[in-house]
Every structure is written in structure tokens, then in C-alpha cells.
Amino acid sequence: MNITDEIRRPIEREIADYENFLARHIRSDNAIASGILDYILANGGKGIRPIMVLLSAALNHPAQCTYNQSTMGPRTYLGAMLVEMMHTASLVHDDVIDESDLRRGKPSVRARWGSRTAVIAGDLILAKSITIGLDSAQFDIVSYVTRAMSILCEGELIQSQQSNLLEMTREIYLDIIRKKTAVLFGVSAGVGALSVGASRSQVAVMQEFGELIGMAFQIQDDILDYDTTADTDTGKPACNDLAEKKITLPLLAVLERSSQTRRQELLNLLANPDSATAETNIAYLHDTVVTEGGIEESKKVLGAYVSRAQNLLSSYPSNAYHAALLLLSNYSADRKK
Hints:
By secondary structure, the chain is mainly α.
């Protein structure tokens, strides 16, 4: 049994119920829309965010449910659907922005149907999921989750601006990954607790736990971008961030300890003013980050976030859900794709 199977094991029945809930609601009677929605859902990832929702709900359930009890219901599944569909829509839109032809090793929606249709499809997913929540009168769940939408957009805008300027500081980088990734992880853990009637303080603890895991998750993503086997493991080419002129923590850690002259030299290579030398420049930057400690520094930062997250769960009883969330926090730091 691999680590993702172990994480899912305490909530296998609830995952199946959630997936049925998702299939019933994210659908369309229109043949064109239905085909696109089915394609998007069939090409989903590991579902880390909805799994976090379900585990948080189980951990915070007032009855401290066992495997033989029903731990959650439509409110929890709605929360899981909202976070996953918000994430899914953002990926569909990202592929348009980045002009990506692949998503998880398969043709992106943009590649199959074109950019215009992909944008509309992403909007459709958001509109459907929010409408379902409002129609069910679960206003607290909808409000809690959708507040993350503007934060996600802000993160993308800040990253785009910094990439264009070729400027980055540790403070700005951490703000970007908090807004782009960690906020939705935090909402995932928080809405799980909220959906089962947890106290405001418990919801806040779970939200912080999720955000810390999200920070670690994104830093690991940025580390994996420097892995030369990433093309086969993650479905995207290695050094993709460098190709898009994104300064992430591994490179930033090297820039921080470089002299002003050396820093400018590295930034000039990143700018790639001559496209003929772009590949050589990227290879040099990759090797520089690896040999000058950028990966090691990033792993230290990542590990600190995981430790803080795990400490937050120390007040909860040791049970299968608690253990699964600890495994999930380790997986965020150790995953290879």
C-alpha cells in the first residue's frame, strides 16, 4: 500500500460518496458542455484538497466517528466539491495563460477545444459549483470557500508582475505561494471542520494547518521543477519555472547569498535576451541552484512548515484520521510528482 492509499484508507467510503456527489452535480444536459465536463473530471488528480476536507471533517466530528459510522454528509461533500472545482477551474485557466498543451500527461482543455472554450469551461465549473451551494442554502460553506477566489487571483497577478520585472524577495515569494496555493489548502481543512459544526477556534486551527501544508506543498513543487526526471514524473518539463522566468525559492535562496554582481549575472541569464542561448542559460541556472545549495535551503524551509503543521494537531486525539493527516503532511513534503 503506497502513502496515498494509506491517507485515503480511513475515509474510503466517504471518498466514494463524495465522488458520486460530484458526478451527480457537475454535469450538463448539453452534449458539448457535458463532454468537456466529463473530460475534465476524468482527468483529475489525486484529489488532495477534497481528501483534506473529508479528513478534517472526520477528525472534528463531535462523535469522533469510527470506521463503522457515517462521519459526514452533504455539507461536507459540498465543501469538498467547491474547493476541488475552484482548483480545477484555475488549472483550466492556467493552461490558457501558459499556452500549455498537456495537463497531467493528457491534452489540456485548451489543446483539445481551444483557448476560448477552455476559459468558458473553467467559468462554467465555477458557476455550477457555486450555484449548487447557493441552491442548497449552505451559505456559510459557500461564503467560507469562495472568499479564497480573489486571493488566488491576487497571487497570480503578483507573480506575473514579479516575473516581468525579474524581481523577487523572500517576503514576496512567500506571499505569492500563500495566495496561489496555501490559501485553498487552508480553506479545505477549515471547511471540513466547519461542515460538521466545529467551533470557530477549531476551524481556525484546521485552516492554519491546511495553509502550512499548502506552503510546504508549493515549495516541494518548486523543488521538483529542478528535478531532471520531472518530465516523466510530473507530466511537465523540468525547469519549466526558469523557462517562464519565475523566481522560486530554490533560485531565490542562491540569489540571496550572492554578491550584487553575481546576482545580476544570474538574472541576466534568466531574462534570456537572446533566444538562441535560452536552453544553455536555463541549464546553467539549474546547475547553479543545485550546486550552490538552493535545493537544500528550500527543503529546510519546507520542513519547518511541516513541523509547525504537525504541532497544531497535537491537541487532537490519536486516531486513524489524525494519523492520515500527519501522513498527508509528510506526503506534501516528500512526493515526487
